[in-house]
Amino acid sequence: MTVRRSVVRGCGAYLPKTILTNNDLAKRVDTSDEWIVQRTGISQRHIAADGEFTSDLGLASAKAALADAGLDAGDIDLIVVATSTPDYTFPATAVTIQAALGITNGAAFDLQAVCTGFVYALTVADQMLSSGLHERALVIGAETFSRILDWEDRGTCVLFGDGAGALVLESVAVDDGNGIDDRGVLAARLRADGRHCDKLYVDGGPSRTQTVGHLRMEGREVFKHAVTMIAEVVDDLMDATGLTADEIDWFVPHQANRRIIDGSARKLGLSPEKVVITVDRHANTSAASIPLALSEAVGDGRIKQGDLVMLEAMGGGFTWGAVLLRW
Prior knowledge:
By secondary structure, the protein is an alpha/beta fold. The protein contains ten helices and 13 strands. The protein folds into two domains: 174 residues, Thiolase/Chalcone synthase (Peroxisomal Thiolase, Chain A, domain 1, 3-Layer(aba) Sandwich); 145 residues, 3-Layer(aba) Sandwich (Peroxisomal Thiolase, Chain A, domain 1), CATH 3.40.47.10. It is globular. The mean pLDDT is 96.
């Protein structure tokens, strides 16, 4: 008997050209490079230019992923964009990207799970591909969080940046043997607990305020829950697949805070050498952070075909989740 796996064919990324350093921020709010680095591990972030939209970032990353895969846009019949900062309330940013790529068939939609968005989107796309409903997908995480920040709130404005990353997935038939040895998405776990929504949210929206609003966060509360929630869902995934931490080649976490990343890796028993870190240069790019980190680690040769890769994220809602895939 054969089953279908969603195999990664290519990856790509895009970061806006403008770089905002901690020292730049210190000229705008009461903060310092030392204060930010000590608490978050962040040194700089990229900021979208005026007139540069989430769809532009997502489109650039999609083109890079297609080039890496050696495919044309016409080979894609599914686009899923994870974003909390869409171009418009509607239509979906995914259809803007679809049109820009010249694709006129298949499906395209946005998915909103904040910083866990890419993990959710990858899981949804995998299910649509493995069911046979679609053949090839672009899964994109794209954000312009700079547009929803309160630049006078030093507790949040120092944490976030803009960027986009994308994967091309292809549905491939494989023998139903030892699935852990197959390439592609092997397993996923998604979680949510809406009781925590007031700990990380945006205080605007078309229904409640008819405004975009600004990001608000109770940093200590988020930190307190993050490591525990991340470890729980990753442990569950490893138990379900019978794997141990030693068998994981690379851990690619959501890039929110260096202390959360380090704490999660220690709790999971993962050596620091296996952890991909980009938060120092990208800051928290929400749904874009995991594909940006993947693209960097693949581009510099760390992640290679056949490697076992664990992705995880936690974000507003709270939402959290993990995906295990073999590159």
